Fold:
Amino acid sequence: MAEILHLTHSFGPLYDPESRVLILGSFPSVKSREAGFFYGHPQNRFWKVIAALTKRELPSSIPEKKALLHESHIALWDTIFECDIKGSSDSSIRNVSPTDLGQILQAAEIRQIFCNGQTSGKLFQRYQEKSLGRSARILPSTSPANAAYSCEKLIQAWLPVADALADP
Structure:
């Protein structure tokens, strides 16, 4: 049984000056923390959804994932920088310190912010929305724990990401 640990985010955001869309998770899962990169659990559908939306091949390595995001003008980060968490469970998150999203918003012309799941969305609204003067659209979580959504249903629900990337 996993114990509650106080953790600090162990890797930084991914973005560049060409990033147009910012996708925020909540906090890295155990598998992501082990990999040192976003959405490291093999059953998380994030990479399948992004590959489908961008009409690209499914990346398998971290360098391929980074290239897909950079080429597609997608920035990734999380709403939480530090928290108490049990394993990978979003529902166990307590004592939150939010991430500083200002660095991304200053460096890139982010058109729209999306939150991957309710936890990310609620935490963004609580800690970052007012100070940034920006809102975020909450999308269904790509986590395997979100069994109510098939991969196909997630792709449809995430179409606003593709729309935001396509706008001039």
In short: The chain has a mean pLDDT of 95.
